[in-house]
Amino acid sequence: MQVHVTNLGFHNGEFSVNGNTDNLLYEKGYLCFRRREIEHGLEYPEEYTFPLEWKDNEFSFTKNINEIFQGISLSEEMIWDLFLLCGTDYFKLIIDSSLQLYKSIYESMDNKLYKTKPYITGENGVSFVFQKNEIKAAVKNASFEEGVFDLTVQLTHAAVFNSEEWEAYSTRLVAKKREQEQLFEYYEKVEFEAERGINPLRFTMDFNEMLKDYSLNRKLIWDFFIQTEIDGVYIETPIICIGDMKTLNFQYATCIHNDLFRFKPYVTGKNTLSLFIRPSEIKANVSHLESINNTIKLEGAIVSNEYDVWNVDELNAQIVLKKRYMFGKEIGYYSEKPHEIPLINGQFQAELPVGELLADEVLRHKDVWDIFVRLTTLSKNTIDIVLRAERKIKDVVFTYEIMNNTLYRGKPYINGKGNISFYLIDSNKQQPDSVKVAVLGSCFSRNPFNSNSYFNPGYKKNYSCVLTQFHSSIISMVSNPATIDIDQLDDVSDYNKYFIQQDFEKTFFDQIQEQDPEYLIVDLYADAARDVMKLADDVYVSASLALRQSKHFKHYMDNELITHDNNRDYLKLWKDAMILFAEKITNYIQEDKVILNVGGFTTKYQDNDGSVKAFPREHIIRRNNYFWDQLNAWFIECLPGCKVIDLRDTSYIGQHDHPFGNTFSHYHSGYYKEFMNRLNKLVMQDLQKERHTENTNTFVLV
């Protein structure tokens, strides 16, 4: 059903609406005002209904807006949408786009604090919107002595013009504490009544009295507002400084109840008036800092030009580690670890056993623990002062050390402000219960198991790569072994010697049996882009780049080289080899635990200026990708139960600063992280399947 508005009026506070429904109602509906909220989607937490005058399917309504919203708490930008309520069903009032409001300007409510008007929404609905009437609260005079603030404020109101009208309003000053310096959210307030209720208003505020029961432990800002109230409805207006008052500048006063803190009224960058409370400027300067076995040794001194450090209780000093959290743009703390230290004439020496202090903590990658000195005065007030490195030690470099639980490494560090903290990262130690994987392929499949930050620095928490067969052709792997004097490859790295020897001696299947991986990840890079050499009947070796670039390769120049110049012949030989590989590998690992990484070369890369550029010889890249697709298809034909990771549906391309060089087989960092995401998903699906099977078997047994 639709509800059509045929007439809409608003004048001198009287709201009128006429309309009809396209169906004759068995139960007459009510006009419903519903307060709109869009914090978590469109919601209506508050509503009020009023009877309508009905004649057949036509309705009319007239009522003063002050009566409609009598006793309702109003606020700035509040919106009320209008509906027809029939039983439990709500029907939004729809207005014809050609219909004009008789009067569409704001009108003040009787309380003169708010003004409102009806308006036609973008969906041709009818709503009321509220705004505050403009009230200005400007500083007329101000003085600040010995913690007492005398303030005179002049109010001006767009709808109140004389002192007789002002007498109907109750006014007070409200100080509200900001939750953060840059976040104007308030949960605490203190009210001050005016010495006289006549405009201008005069207030006398003793801030020492205000703060006497308040626990001071950090910098605070209290913003000042004038609250104007009538008949239970109120608005709050920030106190502003205009003209000469913009330059108000008071001296700090010391807090009587906690002499570690100072305060003063001040003019903010928005020319509003606030109270600023800060700790005295006390520094804990560190002149020596070293870390051995997660014990920080440090020396330093407490100094201040504002506070007499002789008031500090030297028998009650501590170094405190505090775990840092970010609350919006500011730092906050919950957990802390104190450690007693000696303090003599403001000088301190300490050995901070960080490993011991954090032994019972749940540590996380990139945790930061800031380091403070906690001072207690003779009057039992306390303050925490961040340790600050003197210039001579700011360039000291520390190395990570394994923490007690071996999962994390930690070290002290000095940030850009010179403050000293303790920083934790994953230790990258292999976990005993990690999933064992083997890799047969290339950097496409091995790089995801790399602790470099470009790849997956925390992979060892979940996976253990127990075997890698690098750049070996399937043709080579299923052929007969060949001999090689590996010491002759004196221009090849030990890393690559190992893989060349593997390829010649055909040790892969023995190693698979020995290492017993839970998953085998395969990519066919070597067969898609590299050649194989035939040394004898049924003896093939991979012509990997490492072998071809060695001086020893000249000894194989007379052997037959099966290249990609004729991929039809290569594919025929490879297909037969793949059938044999599938037969052999399934003797050692289940078919559904073999994961084919589809791979593929990229034709583009992102340069250091952010531009996207093309790799040369694009036709060769596309030829190799075409052939690679054929290899992948036959692999799946031979092992139809295998799992597949296919990142060709992503938009990743090459990256100029890849750790192993900018080539068409080296991708953006996100490529390897997405590979890990998809591997995790496959492993999780297997775990869920195994759990389901166990639960089913348990149920049958019961």
Describe the structure in your own words.
The chain is 18% helix and 42% strand. β36 (531-536) and β37 form a beta hairpin. The strands form six sheets. Strands 1, 2, 3, 4, 5, 6, 7, 8, 9, 10 and 11 form an eleven-stranded mixed sheet that branches. It is built from 13 helices and 43 strands. The chain is of the alpha+beta class. α11 (567-585) runs parallel beside α12 (618-638). The longest helix has 33 residues, at 669-701. The protein has four domains: 3-132, Immunoglobulin-like (Sandwich), CATH 2.60.40; 135-279, Immunoglobulin-like (Sandwich), CATH 2.60.40; 282-426; 435-684, Rossmann fold (3-Layer(aba) Sandwich). The model has no long low-confidence stretch (mean pLDDT 91). The radius of gyration is 38 Å and the shape is flat.
For the secondary structure, the number of strands is 43
Mean pLDDT: 91
Structural class designation: alpha+beta
C-alpha Rg (nearest Å) = 38 Å
**CATH structural fold name of the largest domain:** Rossmann fold
Main sheet record:
11 strands, mixed
Number of helical segments with 4 or more residues? 13
The count of domains is 4
Q: Per the principal axes of the C-alpha atoms, what is the gross shape? A: flat
CATH class of the largest domain: Alpha Beta
Corresponding CATH architecture of the largest domain:
3-Layer(aba) Sandwich
Q: What is the straight-line distance between the termini? A: 56 Å
The level of helicity is 10-25%
Fraction in beta strands: 35-45%
Low-confidence stretches: none
